[in-house]
Amino acid sequence: MKLLLVEDNAELAHWIVNLLRVENFIVDCVADGESADTVLLTQRYDLVLLDMRLPRLSGKDVLNRLRRRRDNVPVMMLTAHGSIDDKVACFGAGADDYVVKPFDSRELVARIKALIRRQSGEKSGCLTCGDLQYLSNTREFLHKDAPLTLRRREHSILEALILRQGKAVPKHTLLERIRGLSDETSVDAIDIYIHRLRKHLATSNVQITTLRGLGYILRVKEVLPV
Hints:
- By secondary structure, this protein is α/β, with parallel strands linked by helices.
- It has helices at residues 10-22, 33-42, 59-68, 84-93, 105-120, 152-163, 171-178, 189-200, and strands at residues 2-6, 26-30, 47-51, 75-79, 97-100, 126-129, 132-135, 140-143, 146-147, 206-211, 215-220.
- GO terms for molecular function: phosphorelay response regulator activity; transcription cis-regulatory region binding.
């Protein structure tokens, strides 16, 4: 999952970015409203964390522009003020959730996961492909009920594949999910991460298959007749 954080407090932004990266999120961060608006014109995110009061363009104005473009990316507003007027303004502009600073790290992560889950329409909390499980509540992968330890980019790619299991996911889509604003990751790097994931899944009954010209697909291995 790829998130955009828009926060002008450098210390707080650094803390939130580190917190979310530990949770295997890919995170981009900008410090003002104009930069956020520019980035949101060209990049796709699973969720935006948007400070209410920003330099150059307010969080509310960024959100208004986003919704006028009919971009329905989930937006969680961050603000130091919890007044009713602020809440009404946020939701009236099209926000999906609202968090008052200072907030507990566990609450922030839990609400982000809940918002993404609600947006995706995932209700069961668990996706299964063969003996591989994805728990959407915690964004954890299990293989035969044991946690599958993955690096952040490996996790993001496998997450994209299992959310669209049985369907081809183009290489450029996978690259978009792992490349941050400051990264120079090339499309060829996807092959490296797919190779690593295949090693992680070597003892499972699922496989990542390359479909030439189409991308990659996650599915249960075919059992050949004896």
